Amino acid sequence: MGQFSVGANTLPIPSASTWLNKVPEVTLSFWVIKIMSTTVGEIGADFLAVNAGFGQGITRTVMGALLAVALVMQLRTWRHIPWIYWLTVVLVSVVGTQITDLLTDGLGVSLYVSTSTFAVALAGIFAVWFWVERSLSIHEIFTRRRELFYWSAILCTFALGTAAGDLATEALGLGFTWGAVSFGTLIALTYAAFRLGGSAVLTFWIGYILTRPFGAALGDLLTQAKTYGGLGMGAMWTSALFLTVIVMLVALAQFSVGNRINAQAVE
Predict the structure, then answer these.
(1) Within a domain: residue 253?
(2) Residues 180-208: pLDDT tens digits?
(3) Which residue among 30, 99, 233, 235 is buried most deeply as judged by most CB within 10 Å?
(4) Can you tell me the distance from the alpha carbon of 259 to that of 73, in angstroms, rounded to the nearest whole number?
(5) How many folded domains does the chain comprise?
């Protein structure tokens, strides 16, 4: 068992070779793609349901089916494949948004209730995951069971982040700008805690949860009309821009993984 160290933080990594891990390394590119994926999930779901005219029911059905296909592809791979992984994340983002929207807009569930419920559900997933596997580290996702725990947690973080973001920007009245600033500040404080020696696993998951409402607030800030406090860029152009950046970064990651595998094959 090897070690991965950042400052005072140390995480175990299987000695079999880090690229066998089913999730990507946590780099700046990882967080950029994650935030943009959350933004695309927030505005993409609304665009398909409203602007494209598909309606909430058809959009939920189609996105749920696509997510199921992506998850099967992800689970059937034997190593990390960037384009499959990030496709799954984008679809999880869309479906996670739709779950919260269904509860809030369709069933009239209070954002206070949904936020609390998703927080308890996520805590339950983490508790069972740790009880069974004795680790919540994303550097050790190399078995089917751990991967199922991982994706369950990821889906719950997106639903929780959507509810918490809507709670902050709408129910509590922060608005898009202050919502983005507030969650961005919390992310910065989490990173500072990590650099000062905080638990790498704990700060990662806190940051992962916070990037969801940050991305949602950022998406609303960019797309909503100026009369509603946004910048008026529109959902279609913002989604196209962010998807382009995501595709470019994922393509670079795919190329890097391919080179690494080829190099190991030569050795």
Answers:
(1) no
(2) 899 999 999 999 999 999 999 999 999 99
(3) 235
(4) 22
(5) 1
Q: Which residues of 121-157 are buried (b: 16+ CB within 10 A; e: fewer)?
A: bbeebbeebeeeeeebbbbbbbeeebbebbbbbbbbb
The pTM score is 0.83
Within a domain: residue 195? Answer: yes
Q: How far apart are CA 122 and CA 206, in angstroms?
A: 12
Tokens found for residue 71:
């998850």
CA 66 – CA 157 distance, rounded (Å)? 19
Q: Given the structure tokens 């916070």, which residue do they identify?
A: 210
Q: Give the domain range for residue 88.
A: 37-141+158-246
Residue 173's region, left for phi above 0, alpha for psi from -120 to 50, else beta, is left
- Residue-level length of the chain: 267
Could you tell me if residue 192 is inside a domain?
yes
Q: Is 46 a domain residue?
A: yes
